[in-house]
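Give me structure tokens for this 239-residue protein.
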Amino acid sequence: MSTVIRDISSDELHLFGDIAARLECLEPEFDARAAVLADIVRLIRGDFAGSFVWNAAKRRFDQALSVNMDPANLRRYEDWYQFRDPMTFQLRARRKATLVDDIIPRAKMERTEFYNDFLARDGLHHGVNLFIFDADRDLGDLRIWRARGRPEFGAREIGLLDALEPFLARALRRNGRLAGLTPREHEVAALVARGCTDRDIGRVLGLRFGTVRTHVSNAMAKRGCANRAELAASIARRV
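Here you go.
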């Protein structure tokens, strides 16, 4: 069913088009989240944002980006509060833009350590999250918030984020094949994607077996892949 997005100015419509065009043209070596996060916050009239990527190998969110948030507070999230987060995995399971209030009642959230010692430190109050996937692989997320006293997010913001999701997913898939790997790690990962064993890769690249294993392990960790099959898919997949 098509979505009608109401209450959007001509400047905001132009901004939406600019974000979409930027994502379509972005080269793989640039982090798509960093390229557009601040403008998406503007588009949906937010005040703050955080963005992470789920690292399947380490079972944690990392690669933090933020808008108008204290970097020290983001580190507290990475080190402590993500493991005491009462809502993010439920939001992630929705696989579409979702209001935080649809997952946890506001009164209940305001009684949590997560709210009082993490969210409230930066003034985060009304939230909407979007988790972006390629099949079952996490590509990244957008966690956008408004301050207390601002209007709650609603259908307008959900519609805009859902409309941007395909552009974000394509850009993050391109980004996911290359970004973060050293040239040697990418060479090794590309040979993994072609079905080569570690001994084959060592012969082709003139590397010791242990060195190949190290490069494979590093590439899996950086790409958030739990095994060689996931690494191969992340490199070989075409947009």
